[in-house]
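Lab notebook, bench 4. The sequencing result for the construct came back, and we need a structural model before the next group meeting so we can plan mutations. Quick request posted to the team channel:

Model the 3D structure of this chain.
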Amino acid sequence: MNREDFPILNQTVHGQQLVYLDNAATSQKPQSVIDAIAEAYSHWNSNIHRGTHYLSQKATQKHEEARERIARFVHAASAKEIVFTKGTTEAVNMLAFSLGEWRMANGAAKINQGDEIIVSGLEHHSNIVPWQMLCERKKAVLRHIPLREDLSLDMEAFRSMLNERTRLVSVAHVSNVLGTIQPVEEIIRLAHEKQIPVCIDAAQSAPHIAIDVQAMDCDFLVFSAHKLYGPTGIGVLYGKEKWLEQLPPYQGGGEMIQHVRWEGTTYNGLPYKFEAGTPNFIGSYAMGKAVEYMTAIGMERIAKEEQTLAQYAEQQLTERIPGIVIYAGGQQKTGALSFNVYSEGRLIHPFDIGTLLDQQGVAVRTGHHCAEPLIDSLGVPGTVRISFGLYNDKEDIDRLIHALERAIRMLS
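Done. Here's the predicted structure in token form:
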């Protein structure tokens, strides 16, 4: 896979060739995505859906073609099931708000006092805080699937948590800290046995492994463009049509309406009911180009090579770095892994390691990774996280190891 497609990587940092291992935070962009943004602003920038002139119709066509392309990318049954958002965070907030405001046919609220939402013990804050806010509004209860000692989900505990008060399960497909792949198919199956809908946070899986929402049978799925080689500020809420039809809109304004009268407003059809205001049509076009780039390479190839790279990184770290602790070591991972290093029984602070790696041209992420409950359970102030993209290779890992050895010598 061609590193040369990504112009930002062809530079030196602090006099060293850049090694970028912070893809779980955001990935770099291929030239085709960068060119797409310039093309759109240069040739057909115009507000969409409401114009009869050429530029508006061209922009509308590009926006809706991108929606179709993304629907195919996740194997949605229809493009109507693809709602554009600002990103994963807004997608979860949109779902949490709409679920909280949902009134069923008999007028009863979907979420009431004492009802329960289930997440897991390894979630990103974006899949915790919106549900906490919903529970505060509705006096509902947020529960989390506990972790076993090896940091895998306790599926027996999850099975016992499901009950007649459970209204939704929302879990990450891949941990943004550990890189571990969660048993989402089993989670969905167990929840569906009790007619409980499931949302999958695919922010960390969509860039690395093939997503098929119909085969998975999830009810909702969320992900961001900027982690899969696309632009910032745009993402997707996928929802089964039967659910999106029933959920109320998240925001009011232009585009999401059918008719507005002083007496009341009727809402637009799917997916526009959830897309108030001028959408990020430049972003959707560029996101479509990113998906096109990944599809041309092949998601199976990307998954295979990145999982091989993760295994190589774990092996090299284990063999060459004394005092290293790799969290969820030995488990199947994709995209990322986290570790800490101890010297003479003392934790070397991950921030110090990250700073010295940066001085050698190696970009990693340190801290709690927006997953404080998980980091707290590990009993550490943070971790060093390395995360992979399709342009990384074994040479990058070798550079990381060399830089890490030097950093540890300086800090020990």
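The chain has two domains: 32-296, 299-411.
Will bring this to the meeting.
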